[in-house]
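Hey, can you fold this?
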Amino acid sequence: MEENKEKKEIKISLWTFYVLIAAMVLLIGAVVMGWLKVEEKSNTPQTMTQNEQQQNTQVAGNKNEELNVDSELVQKLYSYIRFKYFMPGGEFSIRDVNGNHKEASYPVILMYREKTSINNLDEDLKLLSACSALFDEKEYTVRKEKNKEDLADENIYVFSIDSIQNKSRTMYNSTINISKNSFSWTDSDAIEYNPQTNSYEYVQYISGGGTSYFDEFKLIKAEKNNNEVYVYDNYIRGIYDNDLCKLYATSDQNIKIGEIRDYDYEENKNIDKVKNSGITLPIYKHTFKQRNDGTYYWVSTELTNVSELETID
């Protein structure tokens, strides 16, 4: 009897031992799980901070990147607006294919209005700017004209319609509705349509006189944001009135901003004079959008500080 009692006590002791071991395992498991939860909570703010940092980095990445105004890209895009050659000036006139004079759309022909986009951009302006770019890049053929006495240069520079349309696609992402008009102004330049060759020609005549107004521009800043480039400049239109020069913020002369005397005929000298006189200069923003191939085309031009301009009658 005592031997059986002894065995029973040993079995009870072993069972108690196993229970204690199981309890310890459960306790340790509970402690570990609790520790893991504490760690998870302590790590959560850190994870959120990293996400916030990532978002902040993305926001910072959307800020405009400043571009060098003298860079090749900015200068090229600016030429789409302030083209180098054939900028209408002086007594600008337009003739149709039969030689009849038409009412000149200039000064409205320029982009410098309160808001201009491809939807209201003058077709003649696109034509002249495309010819300017072709001439600057020497994409033309040359023929000699020796039978006209009023020419300042016997070289006639010829632009094919195809090359004009291709250049317009590059600059404005659209083709031109070719009017077959010819254009001339009194500083001796002319862009003439030749019906025999269905092309446009740059002809330089002997100067016909002075001008009654001027347009001046000053490139001040350029920025890039994602797939767009923004080019900013000052612009003024001056109308000569004896010894007085009336100043306008737009090429259609809707916003008069002041007057100056002793204006300077040298290009872009009047802009500095206007600024030094205390007159607020108009600031224009020109927007260019990037294509899939990395090239850019003009989208719009707008006057950004019209509310800051002190307008006068």
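Oh, and this one too while you're at it.
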Amino acid sequence: MTDFDIRTKNYINIIAPNIFNEIKENKDKVYLDFIILNGDKELTLSTIDNEYTIFFSTFHCHFTTNSKEDEKNILQDAIKYIKDIITEKLLIITYYNCDSIAWSTAINRNEQPEIDKDKKVVIESWNNTYFKIIEAQKNGI
């Protein structure tokens, strides 16, 4: 475990002590995964490469720290983002080319996602309150 991981663990105990269900340590690559479970869904906050990365479904985003002094503030931003996902303030939008993921993004739940008629679009939320599949239009039909 790196010094960054130890500091992160300590910060989480202060900032959000009850939010994660489990912590996994990857000893080969030296990082921690802080995990929240919701049925078959999993959200992970990882410390890979001394930055905070959030993974949920097909989506991931990075919160990069520039110095030891800003780690706690950046982690607070990442925790807020996680809370926005699990309270369904944010929705995950995934765009597919056929069956392959083209890209994914997060939007506020009151925003309308951009629809690309040539791509299948999947809208999902943490509790599936918001879940919709919009099939691609074949040949512009």
